[in-house]
């Protein structure tokens, strides 16, 4: 038996091993970056209203599905052509279709580029949430994946003029400006063209806070993105092994430790900076700002993570976190642009900050020509993105296809664009009792007469209406089933009474909560005494605190069962 490793590999064999290891590495980090779409979906869904959640999730799925096809058919070729034309090496028509007939390694390389392209595309969806037509967003995604983003990579990673500008080249290791900065600027531009959501600004110019529906979603999405970001940054060190003199040696992994360290420190510092800035502003550490700060720190470090000293990573991350609430407030109150998911301060301005900070924290020290190259690169990418995005959304707006109607916006994009309700079953609880139709009966026909000889409810029909805490709905359902009154109607409502007014905070902005979320339960009874129903509700819904709700009993003049036409008490 021959032991493993006892046969020396020839040069060709070692080359195969090196290539295999490198391809497996690239594919692994590519799949990790793809998983970031789950993070974007959760983060954005958490920051929009409940009536727009399905729309946001759909846009994230279509971004990948439609965008990746556009990037394969057109975008990858456009990037190569732009790189050749602006880099002086020339370009041919064959460059447009090279990826179609590539080999296995070429297609792995294409897929690695595709996940970066789709990241830039999906960032835009968060800025235009709540009012952009799905067809408009899809049209823009196709153009971004096919032309807008590939032009940027053509100028830079594909060997265009920015790759060698001023003899030093624009430095962007993993897309802090090329991907995230570009996506954030595109999102801000699109949001400006579309205009703010209905109710975002008052007639007097005041800013109205529109909180998202789930902080849990937003934080979970943030942590998924942070996990995937290691594929984004560390994965860009895309050649663990290399061949030298017929032997395998360490490839670009020589700096992988620096990338992993500075990525982690930038992320942590971003959260600290945003939390500190939030506390300085409101005396409270805003959860959403901390989450956004982690991402802003990652964005700021992404373009420079391979060639900076570790204290620089902390400094840049802190600045990215601190600028977050300041830039968001400027965009919101000065520019009056409704950037729903704060994509510009998280991706746009943080990406710009990181790129411009490079010469100040670089391993090789400060160099004026490097700073100038970074400024030129940022200006070119930002200028192209603004012009292209404004042209696309401006054209869509001119033909009335950019924004949903006011009626659809008020109803929510889930129903108007997709015909779905993301949360249709808000009444699920701990009941387990009889259902409304065909439920158990409280008493047999011969037991309907009360002990005093009268009929329940004095022979009439009563409606018991209870307004209770949402978390008590399950207990109330069970109570009604136990007293033999399982038929009920439940409605989500909001109102105010004795419960104190509260102050809420969304991204550092305080707002008054004087309408509290409640559930209205309506139960019509005839054979069951209304007093029994009332007592059952009070017993199960009470917490002893203000805001438990109230129960009302009213007389019902008549009732009719639609299926049979039966009228009166028998209909109930």
From TrEMBL:
Which ranges does the record mark as transmembrane?
Answer: 23-43, 64-87, 107-130, 137-161, 173-194, 215-232, 259-280, 287-304, 310-328, 340-363, 375-396
The record, for InterPro entries, names: Ammonium/urea_transptr, Ammonium_transpt_CS, N-reg_PII, N-reg_PII-like_a/b, N-reg_PII/ATP_PRibTrfase_C, N-reg_PII_CS, NH4_transpt_AmtB-like_dom
Per the record, the major location class is membrane
Subcellular localization(s) per the UniProt record: Membrane
Gene3D superfamilies the UniProt entry points to: 3.30.70.120, Ammonium transporter AmtB like domains (1.10.3430.10)
Single GO MF descriptor: ammonium channel activity
PTM-bearing positions, type O-UMP-tyrosine: 511
A biological process (GO) of this protein is: regulation of nitrogen utilization
Q: Domain Ammonium transporter AmtB-like, which positions?
A: 24-423
Topology with respect to the bilayer: Multi-pass membrane protein
- GO CC annotation, single: membrane
Highest taxon of the lineage? Archaea
- Report keywords, A-Z: Ammonia transport, Cytoplasm, Membrane, Phosphoprotein, Transmembrane, Transmembrane helix, Transport
Query: What family is reported?
Result: Belongs to the P(II) protein family.
* Protein purpose: Involved in the uptake of ammonium/ammonia (NH(4)(+)/NH(3)). Transport is electrogenic.
Protein name per UniProt: Rh family protein/ammonium transporter
The organism of origin for this protein: Halococcus salifodinae DSM 8989
Q: What is the lineage of its organism?
A: Archaea, Methanobacteriati, Methanobacteriota, Stenosarchaea group, Halobacteria
